[in-house]
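Why do we bother with a discrete structure alphabet at all? Because it lets us treat a fold like text: something you can write down, compare, and reason about line by line. To make this less abstract, here is a complete entry for GntR family transcriptional regulator. Read it the way you would read a sentence in a foreign language you are learning: slowly, and without expecting to understand everything at once.
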Amino acid sequence: MHEIVDGPKPKHAQLREILRRLAEHDLAPGSPIPSERDLAERFGVSRITVRAAVGQLVAEGLLTRAKGRGTFTAQRRYDLQLHLTSFTSDMVTRGLEPSTEVISCGEGVPGGKAALGLDPDETAYRLVRLRRADGAPLALERGWYSPHVLPELDRCDLTGSLYEIIAARYGVQLDHARQTVWAETADGETAKALEVRKGSPLLVFRRVASSQGRPTEDVTSWYRGDLYQVTMQLDRTVPGSGPNSAKGGTT
């Protein structure tokens, strides 16, 4: 580590940069950093100075505090890809080992809760699964599935890629989806499943997917906010200026 010297740059700012390099280059995500006492003794500064430097890095999201345990480097965030693919395929592409725990699977009446085009008293398959990557819980999924498109879905092994099962067993390819994203805090049940504290931030995705115009899946997924982020590419476009915007154009 570098040393802290007297000079125009405040000591807490010098320590902050030392800890930044430590967190970004030397320590793996989720690693503990030295205690306030150890840092104060190592660099010859007060614990107030240490607290100020660490606090700024926590505010930036580079470090995280765990009550009663200490301060850690932040876990790596997985960048969610906004395209129609399975969780399993997405994790494998990232070099991670996906796994799935089926919490429950059965039939129920979604009523107006699910966008599956069913009659009010019709039943659908209700599937709840916990998704992991390299053993870490990342997402809790609660979904409804059409019994017309996917009959006897509850008899399948649902611990793998559901989209692969749908394609292999039913010959169905999901070709269209509408997805909505919002933020929530974890309730007690979801927090326990994802191994986070109640009230922790979550990213929530509701996806309604169809195959050749037939509604097939209506699933809501709660992702850990400390491990996931969403990146979108935004291009400036002028309404009406696209390739099909000419008057009299064909469709």
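What the structure line is telling us, in plain words: The radius of gyration is 24 Å. The first strand starts at residue 63 and ends at 66.
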